């Protein structure tokens, strides 16, 4: 709906026109700008932004230009003769919808954590599909909808080799997507792809530089240990580990824990 409020800092669309505050940005894992809460709408966003759809290391990516809010891009993953949208961007316009339809449309949406929920319900309504989120993060849904399916437990099989894995860490319900056929892990920033592609990292709050405690780091490593993957695809264009992904996660977790104890590399 074009008149619903959108937080300009995190990109979350709310279920009302005047929410007053954004709980996502008031949380320690995000932030409010120095000049205070700012709002826009989908109509306002369409006036000055567009989506770019292009290849991103073997997947089709969707990202907004100029960058909006956190600036993540989404990925189309072939699924059920259509696609699963991994992550989401706030901007949805007719041009984007038509391009996605030409590529097979959407059979579902899955998002790693609340910072990327954006306008997920808008996308789900447009493509008549469900949104798969972990139940542990249900409180962070700013626009409730029957389209949202909150799953429980540690993994859920979506079929055709796609598995959602609850890792926790950044958020209690933080989830990643394992794509078996491509030996790929789509990680958002639950597992953060960093400039040194021989390693990954983990945080509780990225903008506020709050580290993730040892139990959280070890829980991520343990959740991913049963899965084999070569590539790791992060949340932004080109953020890809191209080989040896499983081993990189394991050794990066150990390095991170050692650093928390003061044993720096």
Q: Explain this structure to me?
A:
- This protein starts with 5 loop residues before the first strand and ends in a 5-residue tail after the last helix.
- The mean pLDDT is 97.
- The chain contains six helices and 17 strands.
- The strands form four sheets. It has a seven-stranded mixed sheet with strand order 3-4-5-6-7-8-9. Strands 10-11-12-13-16-17 form a six-stranded mixed sheet, with helices on one face. It has a two-stranded antiparallel sheet with strand order 1-2.
- The protein has one domain (6-260): Ribonuclease Z/Hydroxyacylglutathione hydrolase-like (Metallo-beta-lactamase, Chain A, 4-Layer Sandwich), CATH 3.60.15.
- The radius of gyration is 18 Å and the shape is globular.
- With 265 residues, the chain is α+β, with helices and mostly antiparallel strands.
- 45% of the residues are buried.
Q: What order do the strands of the largest sheet run in, or round the barrel if closed?
A: 3-4-5-6-7-8-9
Q: In the CATH hierarchy, what is the superfamily?
A: Ribonuclease Z/Hydroxyacylglutathione hydrolase-like
Let me know the average pLDDT. Answer: 97
Q: CATH fold name, please? A: Metallo-beta-lactamase, Chain A
In the predicted model, the low-confidence regions spanning at least 5 consecutive residues are none
Q: What's the story with the biggest beta sheet?
A: 7 strands, mixed
CATH architecture: 4-Layer Sandwich
The structural class is alpha+beta
Estimate the helix proportion, in percent. Answer: 10-25%
Helix and strand pattern: EHEHEEEEHEHEEEEEEEEHEEH
Give the number of DSSP strands.
17
**What general outline do the C-alpha atoms trace?**
globular
Radius of gyration: 18 Å
For the record, the CATH class is Alpha Beta
Give the end-to-end Cα distance, rounded to a whole number of Å.
50 Å
Counted up, domains total 1
**Number of helices in the DSSP assignment:** 6
Q: What percentage of amino acids are in beta strands?
A: 25-35%
């Amino acid at each position: 709906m074009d008149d619903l409020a959108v937080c300009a800092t995190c990109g979350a669309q709310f279920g009302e026109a005047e929410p007053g505050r954004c709980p996502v940005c008031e949380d320690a894992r995000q932030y409010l700008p120095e000049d205070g809460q700012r709002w826009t709408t989908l109509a306002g966003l369409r006036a000055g932004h567009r989506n770019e759809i292009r290849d991103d290391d073997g997947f089709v990516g969707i990202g907004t230009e100029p960058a909006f809010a956190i600036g993540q891009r989404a990925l189309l993953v072939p699924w059920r003769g259509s696609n699963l949208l991994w992550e989401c961007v706030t901007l949805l316009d007719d041009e984007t919808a038509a391009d996605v339809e030409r590529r097979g449309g959407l059979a579902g949406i899955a998002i790693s954590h609340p910072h990327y929920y954006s306008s997920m319900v808008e996308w789900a309504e447009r493509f008549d599909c469900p949104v798969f989120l972990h139940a542990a993060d249900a409180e962070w849904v700013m626009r409730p909808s029957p389209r949202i399916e909150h799953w429980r437990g540690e993994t859920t099989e979506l079929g055709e080799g796609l598995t959602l894995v609850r890792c926790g860490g950044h958020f209690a319900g933080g989830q990643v997507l394992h794509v078996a056929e491509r030996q790929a892990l789509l990680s958002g920033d639950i597992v953060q792809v960093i400039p040194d592609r021989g390693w990954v990292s983990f945080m509780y709050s990225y903008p506020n530089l709050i580290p993730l405690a040892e139990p959280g780091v070890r829980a991520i490593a343990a959740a991913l240990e049963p899965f084999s993957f070569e590539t790791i695809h992060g949340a932004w264009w080109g953020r890809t580990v191209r080989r040896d992904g499983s081993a990189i996660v394991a050794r990066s977790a150990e390095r991170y824990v050692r650093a928390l104890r003061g044993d720096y590399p």
